[in-house]
Automatic annotation (TrEMBL):
SUPFAM superfamilies (alphabetical): OMPA-like
Designated name of the protein: PorT family protein
Pfam families given in the database record: OMP_b-brl_2 (PF13568)
Bilayer-crossing regions: none
Residues covered by the Outer membrane protein beta-barrel domain: 19-166
Naturally occurring in which organism (per UniProt): Flavobacterium potami
């Protein structure tokens, strides 16, 4: 009986250790350098665009599937948008999204990875300097970037995301964002 109990405890400990190596959960945050691409005319008036600096933060997981391949789903709050200007004035359009990127991570070395994957984003807030709420409630895009593990727990990421769907009901624009992140895996 003692041998069976000891075998069960060893099995559970080994299983837990293997699970810890296969799944890691963490947090990340960083800066967004966002802009919107496409035609910047609203109601027949042309605007020039400038990017905005904002932020992103949220949860991240890494599921190791092979020695050099992992899947990294994330749940982030991310602000994106642009600043628009014409002869009559300037306004800033800032969109807050719940973003769900799912990145495929290919490890080129033990600490350096190439990351690519889709992202679905759901509009949570729209803050702008004028009284028009015209953002689409869903945004879909693709991301590509690089990751660097500084330690087993601390990592850095750089990523570019470009929207494939329209970000506005009234203009032919798409989101574009460059993100720099730092994170911690537990």
């Amino acid at each position: 009986m003692k041998k069976i109990l000891l075998a069960a405890v060893l099995f559970m400990a080994t299983s837990a250790a293997m699970q810890a190596q296969l799944l890691k959960i963490g947090v990340k945050a960083g800066v967004n350098f966002a802009n919107q691409t496409g035609d910047a005319s609203l109601d027949g008036i042309d605007y020039s665009k400038d990017g905005i600096t904002s932020y992103h933060a949220g949860l991240v997981a890494e599921v190791k599937l092979l020695e050099k391949f992992s899947i990294q789903p994330e749940l982030l709050y991310s602000t994106q948008g642009a600043s628009y200007k014409n002869a009559f004035g300037e306004f800033k359009n800032e969109l807050g999204y719940l973003s769900i990127p799912v990145m495929a991570k290919i490890y080129l070395t033990k600490s350096f990875s190439l990351e690519v994957g889709p992202q679905a984003s759901f509009l949570l807030s729209e803050k702008n300097d004028f009284d028009v709420k015209n953002a689409e409630t869903f945004d879909f895009g693709l991301n590509a970037g690089l990751g660097l593990k500084l330690t087993e727990s601390i990592f850095l990421q750089g990523r570019y995301g470009f929207g494939l769907t329209e970000a506005s009901k009234n203009a032919d624009i798409k989101n574009s964002v460059f993100q720099i992140s730092a994170g911690f895996m537990f």
